[in-house]
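Protocol step 4 of 6: structure prediction from sequence.
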Amino acid sequence: MDDIPELGYWNTRGRAAAIRLLLTYLGEKFKDTQYELGDAPDYSREEWSSVKPKFAEFLDFPNLPYYLDGDIKITQSNAILKHIARKYQLDGETEKEMAIVDMLLNQAMDLRNGIVRLCYDPDYENLKVAYFESLTPTLALCEKRLTSNTWFGGEKVTVADFPFYELLDQLTRMKPDVLSVYPKTTEFLGRFRELKNVKEYLARDEVKNMPINNKMAIFK
């Protein structure tokens, strides 16, 4: 078991979902270490904080998610995605493509940050309408990108597709009709779900039932 990579995160989708999807698509065996947050009202982080000092011995910035792959031991979700993508040549084939993939990963992170702020806000229900109205320009740009490209990075799957899939899927769970006027984006979700290994992974009960956000979120 120690010879395979280890991904550590909470037992939610969160920042690790795209990484799990990427590793699954690639057929990479990995140890999926999941930590559980305590129940309300304290939401204790003890399960992680109790072992964090051990990780501080070899992680420069110990945090979740972490990824241990031989002598490469890193944190930060985009850094982990990029490391795996480089290993499997999924970060673009030309300098231009690589630059676009980097841009897309950061764009996806911007989208994620907005979703997280909303989902953890106690006023979630009242803020949701305005949030989805503000999201229209971003979704329109996604639609434009997917009108001229099969995948976000171009005509081949790249690492950028994984966080975008995860976030767009989250949005459809929050508001089922959010993509009703974006047919190309809807087609992307369907196409992604049919990828090798991904289809079987998404069909697992433990994956289908995994909460998106942690226990203190309003939308889980």
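Step 5 (inspection) to follow. The beta strands are 6-10, 31-35, 66-69, 72-75.
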